[in-house]
Sequence to fold (326 residues):
Amino acid sequence: MQGKGHIIVFLFRVILGSLFILASIDKILRPDNFYYIVKSYELLPEPLIAYIAGILPWLEFLIGITLVFGIAVKSSALLACFLLIFFLSGLSINYYRGNLINCGCYTVLFRMLEMEETISIPSILRDLGILLMGVIVFCFDREYFSLSSFISRLLDRKNFPELTTAKYRK
Amino acid sequence: MRNQSFLRILQKAAFILIVAVVCGFLQNHEMMLHSDRYFQEKEAEKLQKEDAITLEEAKEAFESGEYIFLDARSEEEYLPGHIAGALLVPAVSFDDYFPLVQNRLTGSSKIIVYCSDIHCDLAEKLKERLKNHGFEHVRLFAEGWLEWAAFGFPSE
Fold:
């Protein structure tokens, strides 16, 4: 992917990261509430729910931070895709069951708007769109405007000045 | 692009996962290791709040006829079943619904708010909104509609 493609992938990376950070904040601040949301999905065995409710928000937050700053982008995008497949399964199974519970998605936004989002086709389509973004970032990201490429350039310049000068002259 | 092998990508992903597990465990170890006890204590705390009432007290208040019950859930949840005589004031659309019941309330009205069960926080929100509107005698029936209905108390 060349030219504008890099910019689009970069934008997708930042948007995806920001969405993950946004989704994680309320869950980190109110783990009890998130526990009841995970429980209401009726998918996981009881002893596992507390572990998922405690760890998953932090995973979302770290994925978000690493994507926004461009650190280990492919690894974060891969984790993001797995998480989104997990969320999509939960949403779809409960939609199919007719169990239209509180989605628990982007609760910080919905709390600000004093609203509650129940599971619906638009919420499934939205997550599919975000998954597509994750796949694009995973496949095409070239660390454009990322912290890891910035650091590696700095290290290259320091350790191999003659090589990097030649490289950047091209 | 630096050629990253898939193994390297997986290694970094595992590292992110481990950091998430450590952060999650540090913050929520009590919830994760003793979830039953943790949530029992939380529920007890909610029930012991100064302005909270139990199911029995709610029933007595209902029978006394001195209290007005306000349902903080959505209209979709309210219509299939609610405490007999309870008025609908969804906490999430307070400004739309409150004017409809305002003429039945005065500053000295004794009000009981409830939502679906002890885990929902809509009743708590409604209570705060009512207090901001000058209603002082607002009690929270934390166990809510599901518990009321389970005991077969008057509903409609």
The two ends of chain A are 19 Å apart (CA to CA).
